Amino acid sequence: MTNDLDQRDVSESGRRVIVVGGVAGGMSAATRLRRLDESATITVIERSGHVSYANCGLPYFVGGVIEDEADLLLQTPERLYDRFRLDVRVDTEVIAIEPSSRTVTVQPTGGGVQEQLAYDALVLSPGALPVRPPIEGFDRVRVLRTVEDAERLVGDVAAAPSTAVVIGGGFIGIETAENLSAAGIPTTIVEAAHQLLPPLDPEMAVLVEAELLAHGIRVLTGSAVTSVTDSSVLLADGTDLPAGLVVGSIGVRPDTRLAAMADLAIGPNGGIAVDADGQTSDPHIYAVGDAVEKVDSVDGGSSLVTLANVANRQGRRVADHIAGRTVTASASLGTAIVKVFDRTAAMTGWSEARLRAAGRAYRVVRSHPMSHATYYPGAEQMSLKLLFNPADGTILGAQAVGGSGVDKRIDIIATAMAVGISAPDLADLELAYAPPFSSAKDPVNMLGYMAENVLADDSGSAEADEVEHLVGDGWVLVDVRTTAEHAAGAIEGSTNIPLDELRERVGELADRRALVYCQVGQRGHTAAALLGELGIDVRNLDGGWLSWRAHAAAGAAGAASLVR
Questions:
Q1: Which of 173, 191, 354, 378 is a plausible cystine mate for 350, CB 3.0–4.6 Å?
Q2: Mean pLDDT of all residues in 507-520
Q3: Domain 342-458, CATH 3.30.70.3270 — does that match?
Q4: Would the pLDDT of 206 be above 70?
Q5: Distances (CA, A) of 122 to 45, 87, 97, 215, 262
Q6: Is 506 within 8 Å of 534 (Cβ atoms)?
Q7: DSSP string over 88-112
Q8: Residue 309: per-residue pLDDT
């Protein structure tokens, strides 16, 4: 679509723009447009009582980490008028949109005097609605999307309920559970799927579950809620969970009620369809934020991504287009991160499960590096997973779980994906190094070296889910760690030949195929290279013992064995 908002469409007093919905997308559009066009009349309609707030901080307000509610309120209608001359109307909702006359009808939330407003451009930023399934008693369940929701939950926490149940193990569910637990409330997470955090692959999600268990949060996966009573949550298997407080975090769906009013096209995933400029099927109506379908960076298809930074970017681009500027669209990677007590989980691009379901060819490398040089105090281990195209090394996705430094590594990989850096090229990135911050070979560089080896087929690798089949097919499983490491925990049936003894004991592997492993994969790679040179048919277990252990725990649908 082209920008049809030329001077024929603008009133003599200046461009009239109405923005429906505040927070990230709507307020970015409104304030950016004011900086580009001082003559425009800009009206913002917000149905809640707050137009600009840090919704991602709401769980931490509930838990008392953020003590003052005012810290969540980024702007008020008064400040927005003083600085940007925006006409911001809170506690006001749109009850009708007439595209033919380019008008919207608004009235105070809950009823009152109606008013009709004309527009040259209309920007919809309605966000998403919490999923409320048809479960008996679900009207008792709290949700957490707005400041008002958080205020109600703060009141609930102040009443000191004896127990809490969080339904849903996604980002907000986990953050809410952590904060309820920090407030001294025994908390259980119930997740209908067989793992927490669906964007993660199971062997990574199980590390998150382990952290929750270690901090006293009960986790029930593969458990569907059938009803909610005044004092408990009932599960399909008959479990009756005491629950003085119940919070629902099952997910969100695009709020398309305004789109329906304007008869706008809806995309394949149920969100508002927009083009590269943010225009809907009506060129005078734009849409941004969680209600909108985005272009996926991996396959170019349509997807739903509910992230504040994406909404901010869309709002800015829409304002540029309304003002007549050339807009460069960008696809969405879905980069996300969540704090889980002392650990961090982060991801970008597609997961292995999603790639497999789509029938996409991929290769994977795993590592378990330290956050910085091990000889400098405070280094923390992380688990990294990189997925890439076996034909050209294009990065398809990455995941990380660990302590400090997880955010840095995922952000580097997300940036590499955005600019087209391949997996092997990660090895050549010149990243900042000093012992308190990294290692001379940063964990991202190491992923690049590993991908380079895979694509060059320097040594064959095997995945954790292949171990049983390979051993059954006659491969001998060799643990090349030290005797002490092997004694502390090893894959059942493996033979311990420490790496430093491998040359002298290679005769034990004569005429046999060897599947080697170490703690994280690095010594295994060295062992595989050595045995290959000595004529042994060999493969190295990707990610070593730590990856196999996580895979085994995920397969058992539990993380108890991983609790520190």
A1: 354
A2: 92
A3: no
A4: yes
A5: 11, 14, 10, 48, 11
A6: yes
A7: EE-SEEEEEEETTTTEEEEEETTS-
A8: 85
